[in-house]
Design brief:
With 375 residues, this protein is an alpha+beta fold. The chain has two domains: 1-56 and 160-225 and 319-375, FAD/NAD(P)-binding domain (3-Layer(bba) Sandwich), CATH 3.50.50.60; 227-315. The protein is built from eight helices and 19 strands. A hairpin with a 2-residue loop joins β18 (325-329) and β19 (332-339). α1 runs parallel beside α5 (161-171), α1 runs parallel beside α8 and α3 crosses α8. The protein starts with 8 loop residues before the first strand and ends in a 13-residue tail after the last helix.
């Protein structure tokens, strides 16, 4: 027994959720609605990680374009992936409506930075329409900012992810402990003991909702989740609106959005490295990512002066096949997880949370999100 354990507060509940981002909040509130006494332990503050550092863009699908997904996963699986994120969008919009959190129903633009990407967008739009999704393709730049083509998805939305997370936790029957870092989980009979800063909790089940930080917590995720940093530039409020909808470019790895206060956000992250190179080791921002985003902003959004704007970074988690992981730890089956949500986590959140809770309460198979697919 390590020194200081006897001074810790000892609690008990049905479930502990580690991580107070949007995924953790969605899981915790669903468990509470099912009658489970639930506590959330957060090392920082509510939405203090990737959720609060996102641009709030709720975009269907994956970072790459639809035709690429069809090539990677096959036509049927790509359609299932897109449909699940569309369902996740709907659940998010419903939750925001209940909580009075504003949602911007402006749609989104995927913008081509080169001719090859324009061809991919054209093919993607055709496939999306054939598979029942609403999409529009234009062979020119509707923004007049040097892009080669655009694909519009009118059902994409934007939201204040921090406000949504706080709203969920405030209205659910959930106990939240901020500044309470979890150090260890260990089995105790048929339960699990959670060792955290200032307290220990005995519970029937624990949930890891820590996304890109998963490999730092348990070696099981070393070859399954690659922590990847994103970078965002933000201007002071501009004199006029320059964007009417959220935009992504460079195959989804650069993005931009103008907030209601007219600040312009321009962000991006590196294309995930193939495993094992990226396996569990954080991909640093470095000069390549920072300078690449600066060049992108200078070329297409000169309003962003990287020398005078604010900037911040966040940590996302990418899996080898680009899909989230839902499951339980093989060596500690009382511990469940939903991690590796990639660059479009907001659209995945509610769908992933539902599958995780169904697994916990009813043993339901998470389907193609099951961690069993990676061995």
């Amino acid at each position: 027994m390590w020194a200081g354990r006897e001074q810790r507060r000892v609690d008990a509940c049905d479930a502990v959720v580690v991580g107070a981002g949007l995924v953790g909040a969605a899981v915790a509130t669903r468990l509470a609605r099912a009658g489970r006494a639930t506590a959330v332990l957060e090392a920082q503050t509510v939405a203090g990680g990737a959720t609060g550092r996102s641009a709030g863009m709720v975009l269907a699908g994956l970072a790459g374009h639809y035709s690429q997904a069809v090539s990677t996963y096959g036509r049927q699986r790509a359609q299932e992936i897109w449909a699940l994120t569309v369902e996740g969008q709907s659940r998010l919009v419903e939750a925001a409506g209940r909580l009075g959190v504003p949602v911007e129903h402006t749609g989104s633009l995927a913008l081509a930075v080169e001719d090859a990407e324009a061809n991919v967008l054209r093919e993607s739009a055709e496939l999306l329409r054939e598979d029942g999704f609403d999409a529009w393709f234009g062979p020119s730049d509707p923004l007049g900012r040097g892009f080669r083509a655009a694909l519009r998805q009118p059902n994409d939305v934007a939201v204040d992810a921090t406000a949504l997370t706080r709203g969920l936790l405030a209205t659910g029957d959930v106990t939240v402990h901020e500044r309470t870092e979890v150090y260890n989980l260990e089995p105790e009979r048929d339960a699990v003991r959670v060792w955290a800063q200032g307290r220990t909790v005995l519970c029937d089940a624990a949930v890891l909702a820590i996304n890109g930080y998963a490999p730092l917590f348990d070696s099981y995720f070393t070859d399954k989740v690659a922590p990847t940093r994103s970078l965002v530039f933000a201007t002071e409020p501009l004199d006029a609106a320059v964007l009417k909808q959220s935009c992504c470019a460079d195959y989804g790895y650069a993005y931009c959005r103008q907030l209601p206060d007219r600040r312009l956000l321009v962000g991006g992250y590196p294309h995930p490295q193939p495993f094992p190179l990226g396996g569990g080791r954080e991909i640093e921002l470095g000069d390549v990512v920072r300078d690449g985003l600066t060049r992108f902003a200078t070329r297409h959004f000169p309003e962003v002066d990287a020398r005078s704007t604010s900037r911040w970074s966040g940590v996302m988690g990418f899996t080898p096949d680009g899909l989230p992981l839902v499951g339980r730890l093989p060596d500690l089956p009382q511990v469940y997880f939903a991690v590796g949500l990639g660059g479009r986590g907001l659209a995945w959140t509610f769908a992933v949370a539902e599958r995780l809770v169904e697994l916990m309460l009813h043993g339901a198979d998470p389907g193609f999100l099951s961690a069993a697919r990676l061995g």
